[in-house]
Amino acid sequence: MEIILLVLIGLSAGIASGLFGIGGGVIIVPALLYLLKFPVHRAIGTSLAALLLPIGAAAAFTYFRAGHVDIRAAIIIALTLFAGAWGGAMIATRLDSSTLRILMGLFLIALGVYTLLSHKG
């Protein structure tokens, strides 16, 4: 059953990433927490490990071939993303699980509200 859930989580995250450009972690981390009962730090670490290659390679290549990638912007974001991810991981590994869960929940709520209220094209 766990393998089936992991496959469904991966497919869901991949589809959402390709459709909406969201990080798969928005799908993967909550799914690992609630469906498979992973501890929060393990869910985040597993999500990051799973996302290293598939998201960047498959989806980005498809958008690149269609002419929808700004290479300059992508390079700048990638370089700063590396630094930000390292810093965020350093902070997260020092937080207790309940604080990290609360912060993640607040972030996802804020992201959802912003997405719903944004009226731009």
Automatic annotation (TrEMBL):
InterPro entries: TM_pro_TauE-like, TSUP/Inactive_protease-like. The keyword Oxidoreductase does not apply. The keyword Endoplasmic reticulum does not apply. It is a multi-pass membrane protein. GO terms for cellular component: plasma membrane. Its main location: membrane. The chain crosses the membrane at residues 6-36, 43-65, 71-92, 99-117. It is found in: Cell membrane; Membrane. It holds the Pfam family TauE. Coiled coil: none annotated. Belongs to the 4-toluene sulfonate uptake permease (TSUP) (TC 2.A.102) family. PANTHER family: MEMBRANE TRANSPORTER PROTEIN MJ0441-RELATED, MEMBRANE TRANSPORTER PROTEIN YJNA-RELATED. This is Probable membrane transporter protein.
